[in-house]
Write a structure and sequence with these properties.
The chain has a single domain, classed as Alpha-Beta Barrel (TIM Barrel). Helix 6 packs across helix 19 and helix 10 packs across helix 14. The chain has 558 residues and is α/β, with parallel strands linked by helices. The protein is built from 20 helices and twelve strands. The longest helix is centred in the last third of the chain and has 24 residues.
């Protein structure tokens, strides 16, 4: 009798003699248990659920293809993940103060949030910008503001991540210019710029230009960084925002990887370069939700799929090109205004899922973020969550501690199978850019969001404080409010900055940006950098590109 036959025989005996008598006396709490993806979870998992399962094909070893168990051989035993709290608000002074505070309590990398005017290419004194200056991030109209943000911060020794897309080149140019003014060459700068415009069309809507010139813009940044900034991640391909918009775990993985496939194709075609010249610096960004095991399975499936895509679809030879390195943020959409302190528990579980799933950096949302920007008190707790997991929990002492668990491996396979179906559909449509224009991922995510909300409202998905264990009173929480004076400070400084610069140099630099935008064979990065360096603002540069490329209004897709 084989091992599988013995297990099957004992399983049937256990069900007959142990399980069935118990179920007759005490039925289970629900008829069916399902994950957020909608996958039905069975009562028990055994080796029978992995029959025919090839360890070397599915798992292998950490730091080697297919990277299911992690991208580095020793993972956190060698180097901890980067503790990178997303922060930024008000004026440059406000953000500098917050960054220095975060570093003082043990944060190990910076993550920059920019306000909506900066993200959409408007200076803070533009009429459309006025009421949003500094509200959801720092106002960043010029290189002068970047210099203030990084005052007394060692740019050559700190890793900086920038959540910026439609104006990513302008903002990264400011960062480079400030570093070089301090004698720090761009080649030593370490960090990430999000630069993922496809997910803006799919889930977030902070785009400016039509899809084709926007893709050119993103690709030109990737090509520039590959040559000039060897330590810089030139794109962070982001599933997080799709999850926040309503995507299921399989959708998040699938549409993120489909975006990545599109970027790789564009870079190889536009730059006429081999994949291994730029792919090692591609990075990713995922959400971590509260269903712990499903999230761990999601991260492992994404790693395995990306390795296969890069090796089999694009012929990558460098193992670094096949490594899916990713940042994780806990799920902001799951934070509740009701009983906000419960959010600490939620985000701790989510952070644990990210670590068990093998993340390279992590942001833990603060408990008060359903109500306001985080206070110093709440953000310190978020940093401490990461530090307790790292230094006290023991989960980092071995690589991939959940690897080989029957349920985890079965669930990883389930997520991967569902994700491939979405990717195959996108490929059938002609790639992600075409799928976005047709509205396919937008519709799928909107449908999933609607179905999830209905389940919450019906009580089918329990949410503590919202539809179970509800309390009549909302507890008082200290609220952080952006000082209205911050806007005046930024606008006044910008106007003085404009008056102090060499207007002829700015005019000539903007003309060069215009000519570069009109020519397909020119990389747009260097002209924009030169314009930033002589004092051109985000609004002025984006204004030129708007004139050349136009603006895009999404078609009705529902």
């Amino acid at each position: 009798m084989s091992s599988s036959e013995r297990v099957r025989e004992r399983l049937l005996e256990w069900e007959r003699e142990v399980l069935e008598p118990i179920l007759r006396r005490a039925p289970e709490r629900r008829k069916a248990f399902t994950t957020e993806e909608g996958i039905e979870v069975r009562r028990l998992y055994t080796p029978l659920d992995l029959e025919g399962w090839d360890y070397l094909e599915k798992l292998g070893f950490p730091g080697a293809y297919p990277f299911t168990r992690g991208v580095y051989p020793t993972m956190y035993r060698g180097r901890p993940w980067t503790i990178r709290q997303y922060a930024g608000y008000g004026s440059a002074e406000d953000t500098n103060e917050r960054y220095r505070y975060l570093l003082s309590i043990g944060q190990t990398g910076l993550s920059m949030a920019f306000d909506l005017p900066t993200q959409l290419g408007y200076d803070p004194d533009h009429p459309l910008a006025w009421y949003e200056v500094g509200k959801v991030g720092v106002s960043m109209p010029s290189v002068q503001e970047m210099d203030i943000v990084f005052r007394d911060i060692p740019m050559d020794r700190i890793s900086t991540s920038m959540t910026i897309n439609a104006t990513a080149i302008e903002v990264l140019s400011m960062y480079i210019a400030v570093a070089e003014s301090r004698g720090i060459p761009r080649a030593v700068l370490d960090g990430t710029v999000q630069n993922d415009i496809l997910k803006e069309y799919v889930a977030r809507n902070n785009y400016i230009y039509p899809p084709e010139p926007s893709m050119r813009y993103s690709v030109d940044l990737i090509l520039f960084a590959a040559k000039e900034m060897p330590k810089w991640n030139s794109i962070s391909i982001s599933g997080y925002h799709m999850e926040e918009a309503g995507a299921t775990p399989a959708m998040e993985v699938a549409f993120t990887l489909a975006d990545a496939i599109e970027y790789v194709r564009w870079v190889m075609e536009r730059g006429r370069v081999p994949v291994d010249t730029f792919a090692p610096r591609l990075s990713f960004f995922f959400a971590a939700r509260t269903n712990l095991f499903e999230q761990v399975a999601k991260f492992r499936a994404a790693r395995r799929m990306w390795a296969r895509i890069m090796r089999d679809m694009f012929g990558a030879k460098d193992p670094r090109s096949m490594m899916l390195r990713f940042h994780t943020q806990t799920a902001g959409v799951l934070l509740t205004a009701q009983q906000p302190m419960v959010n600490i528990i939620r985000t701790t579980i989510q952070a644990l899922a990210a670590v068990l799933g093998g993340t390279q950096s992590l942001h833990v949302n603060s408990y008060d973020e359903a109500l306001c920007l985080p206070t110093e008190e709440s953000v310190k707790l978020s940093v401490r969550v990461q530090q307790v997991i790292l230094y006290e929990s023991g989960v980092v002492d071995t690589v991939d501690p959940l690897g080989g668990a029957y349920y985890i491996e079965w669930l990883t396979d389930q997520i991967e199978e569902r994700a491939w179906k979405y990717i195959d559909e996108v490929e059938r449509m002609g790639g992600m850019l075409r799928a976005v224009k047709l509205g396919y991922p937008q519709r799928e995510i909107a449908r999933a969001a609607y179905e999830w909300q209905l389940k919450v409202e019906r009580g089918e998905v329990p949410v503590v404080g919202v539809n179970i264990f509800v309390e009549p009173e909302v507890p008082k929480v200290k609220i952080l409010k952006v000082d209205p004076a911050a806007r005046e400070r930024v606008v006044t400084r910008l106007r003085k900055f404009r008056e102090s610069r060499d207007q002829i140099k700015v005019r000539d630099a903007l003309d060069r940006v215009r000519r570069a935008a009109e020519r397909e064979d020119v990389n747009i990065f260097t002209p924009i950098y030169e314009a930033v360096k002589v004092g051109a603002t985000v609004g002025e540069i984006s204004g030129v590109l708007r004139e050349v490329w136009g603006e895009w209004r999404a078609p009705e897709v529902f």
